[in-house]
TrEMBL record:
NCBIfam families: lipid_A_lpxD (TIGR01853), PRK00892.1 (NF002060). The lineage of its organism: Bacteria, Pseudomonadati, Bacteroidota, Flavobacteriia, Flavobacteriales. It comes from Paenimyroides ummariense. InterPro entries: Hexapep, LpxD, Trimer_LpxA-like_sf, UDP_GlcNAc_AcTrfase_non-rep. GO terms for molecular function: N-acyltransferase activity; UDP-3-O-[(3R)-3-hydroxyacyl]-glucosamine N-acyltransferase activity. This is UDP-3-O-acylglucosamine N-acyltransferase.
Amino acid sequence: MKITAEQIAEVLNGNIVGDSTVEVFKLAKIEEGEEGSITFLSNSKYNHFLYTTKASIVIVNKDFQPLHDVKATMIQVDDSYKAFTKILEYANQIKLMKSGIEQPSVLSEGVEYGTDLYLGSFCYIGKNTKIGNNVKIYPNSFVGDNVTIGDNTILFAGARIYSETVIGKNCVIHSGTIVGSDGFGFAPNTDGTYSKIPQIGNVIIEDDVEIGSCTTIDRATLGSTIIRKGVKLDNQIQIAHNVEVGENTVIASQTGIAGSAKIGKNCVIGGQVGIVGHIVIGDNVRIQAQSGVGKSVKDGEIIQGSPAMTYNDFSKSYVYFKKLPNIVKEIDQLKKSNNEI
């Protein structure tokens, strides 16, 4: 799809310097710009590329004054970085602008769906599932019975949504993610074997949540596993049964959260963090990567290490840890000296 500088300037509320009729159809870095592409300039380190880029349109800040002639058409805006982000969002919306039901696909008995549904080929939608308006479900996806999916939500190819799951509006679930699989519940028997505890709860995902690829969110044993509004989950995260993740919390890849842990609002959790079950992580907590969290954490704390401790304590301890070989050597020398006396 081609779009003119005039149309872009209207979207961005910007001023055009150059040819308002020039057309673009792709996005590019300023140093890699080609004819027909649009790019942006926000970092002064890249100013010199403005005079050599082959991009057709460059978005610049209104206060930027070029030192040489610029071949590209410039669109002047208040903040070029934010403006280019808006263009990225616009381009992504166009790319995802699909509708219709491809075949083969299965819509089971009692399914209800709104306007502008896109259902890719080889999808299965279970009984009595309710799907909102403008929902996109890409090929090879599975949606079980009695699922609810809110408006403007996207399930990318190969997503697996088990029965009774509730997904809110404006959510994005990426390929390979599984929502609603059984929690890890087994009772030991006297003969050393285990009996499975039925997992009869569900998963609730509130509005504006994004979940990366190959993440697993287990259904609750009873009640619900809950991902609150605005949460962002990276790829390859494990969230166990009856966990609750608070609003606008962000969790990086390879983190594992054990059953019934409660995570507060506005937390930032680094990659490869392990959180034990049945503890409470307060609001606005920061957990550094590769930390092992074995007890509850108060609001606003920053923790690190395994077992995790406050960031300041960890930093002080690490200084001593690095000196440990020399400390042991000094102790051995003292012991030797005492033996010689």
